[in-house]
Amino acid sequence: MNALDRVINWVSPARGLDRARARAASEGLGAARMLFDAAQAGRRTEGWRAVATDANAEIRGQGDRLRNVARDMVRNNPHAARAKAVIANNVVGAGIIPSIQAANPKVRAELDRLMKAHFDTTACDANGLHDLYGLQHLAMGTVAQDGEVLVRYRPRRPEDGLPLPFQLQVIEADHLDNAIDGPLSNSNWASQGIEFDLRGKRVAYWLFQDHPGAMTAMGTGRSVRVPAEFVAHIFRVDRPGQARGVSWFAPVIVRLRDLADFADAQLMRQKIAACFAGFIEMADPQLGGPYGEKQDGQPHPVEKMAPGMIRRMGIGEKITFGEPPQVDGFGDYMSVNLHEIAAGMGISYEALTGDLKGVNFSSGRMGWLEFQRSVGTSQNHIMIPQLCHRVSAWTLNAASVILSGRDRGATIGWTPPRREMIDPTREVPASIMAIRGGLASRSNEQRKLGFDPEDLDAEMAADNARADKLGLALDSDPRILSQAGQTQAVTIPPERD
After folding, report:
1. CA distance 107 to 113
2. The organism sits in which domain of life (predicted)?
3. What is the predicted pLDDT for the residue at 167?
């Protein structure tokens, strides 16, 4: 306490107490600011780009650049191409399959027929190249590479002869008009080609008719406003309020480039070393002509380098064979960097590289389960809510026209692709025990394997009916033989004329 504090305390003890409390609070705040090492400004924390911008401000200036660099990586870097394929193959695989749930069996059967006729063929693709599951795979691969993709609903006329009167068009994010940004004349506002109302709801997308980078674009170069209900925008939301997606390669692009440059440098180093098998030196430079000349004065030209080449040096020569440089630690360096790249992409090292050295059942299963959690997150947080549910709405709306509204009450569920087992001899009994113990339903375990429960039950019932009709008694039929090998007390009805 200084002299001023003592005077204030003598004149007004209450003011003196307030002054002491304020000083203590200020000292406490200063001490609190020193608790976080990362918040300090110093040599160890130099170079950090600690900015307070929102996600859209970051993407607005750099999203296009990231997308184009990622495409270059996928085109030319084998590990980048593999990472994209691994994500699409595991998230979508053979396809996320739709299934109808409806109280009316006739309505369910008719909707199921329409969906299979439309989605299991190329009729659903505006470009006529993929069925629904191929479009899902294309969309997921584009999301991993570009960070986002758009699927546009294209209505069709009855005379087009499609099972359902619409098609799907997968388009790249380049179609979004980034110039549509800020306040709009209709009181809405836009962010990088996406229009929002005053409540922050997406109401429209401003899209170019042709890809801006197309060499044969036929459009006017102006974007058109497409209502949001006709567009499915698929991307991973990393921050609240984020309007556009960011390439999944963003954390690893520099590392991928450096690793490729390192591998190329090592390869070039070995190739150059292999081109020089030996060097011939002159014992006495005065005995011969100028460097590199024959006795007739004509030079020994070296126009190209080839494996095993010997360079003549002059008269009175001595040959020394080259020793190719070693590449010690090359494999370890590559492995460490590929582990980091796999971690940044959210996939396993084994899936990225195919390197299974040192993997046993336990370690392989642990890595596989963690990878499957990442896959499940992409399925249930990205593909199913952003694409599949939008396709469900379009399908039911189109089917209601054909069925005259008889599909009311019907819904569409989506079953992700089958999860491959590491050891079926252990995992299948575990599933059976979970079902028998009431820890899981049969339908849930069937969905894990990529099957639609109702379709699978219908197939089993049809198999049983056919076996009964033909009088077949198979030991694979649990109605006849138990798992322990004991005959079940079940009588198969005789064949009827």
Report:
1. 10
2. Bacteria
3. 97
